[in-house]
Each structure stands twice: as C-alpha cells, then as structure tokens.
Amino acid sequence: MNQKKILIVDDNVIILKTLSMKLSAKGYEVITAADGASAVSTVRRDRPDLILLDITFPPDVAHGGGVAWDGFLIMTWLGRMDEAKGIPIFIITSGDPDKLKAKAKAAGAVGFFQKPINTDELIASIRQTLGQTTEEVPGASTP
Predict the structure, then answer these.
(1) 42-77 CB burial, b ≥16 within 10 A, e <16
(2) CATH number listed for the domain at residues 28-118+127-133
(3) Given this model, what pLDDT does residue 65 score?
C-alpha cells in the first residue's frame, strides 16, 4: 500500500510542526512549505495527494518583496500546473469564515478549516477526500 503524501503550506512554524506531527502519527507522509513560491515548487517536485493551504502570508521581504502571495494566488498558480491537476486543496485559516469560505470554495477548495483546527475533523475529512477507510491508513486507530 502506498503512503499518501500531504503538503502543508503555512507561514506559521507552530502550525507546520503540529499538523506534521499529527498527520505523520496517522500514517501520512508530510511535506511542508512556508510560502507560495516553495509551495508551487514542492507541488512540481513531490506531487502531493492533498494540500492544506493557509490563506494569509506575510510579504516576502527576504526575497526583495516579490509576489505578494496569498492562498488564492497559490490556488490560481496550482490550477495552471499539470502537476497539480486533481489535487484536492483544504483551506486552513484564522481569517473570517463568513468572508472566506465561499471564496475558497469558488476558487476550488474542497475543504475549509478554521484555526485552531480540530484535527480529528481534519483527519476524517482527509480520509474521506482521499477515499480511505481507517483500515487503509497505516498507524491509524479505529474509533
């Protein structure tokens, strides 16, 4: 059985580490990216099975400002890439769900999670989206 690969894209190191640990403990291979440029290159290189994507990112000052990435721009870029076709995207955000949820769905997101994230709900949604049962996920325990 092949291990499903999940890309987490978030500028918050705590979110990256926490979600990585929880998903790894459930048998997923986890890769991370802290900004839009690395998210796009990671998708090209690693072709994840699912993407968890934050909406808000700080300006990329370290690289001279460059593109002002946000989750919607990242989704637009991914939508143009053959390597990203068919990869489900879940939005993970601390932003206002009333303003962002409909916009995220319209942009192609299949899931929307408000921070702090209920990881049990997130993992259940990941399993459902990837067509997995609990028995198919290595290291997963049955409820």
Answers:
(1) bbeeeebbbbbbbbebeebeeeeeeeebbbbbbbeb
(2) 3.40.50.2300
(3) 59
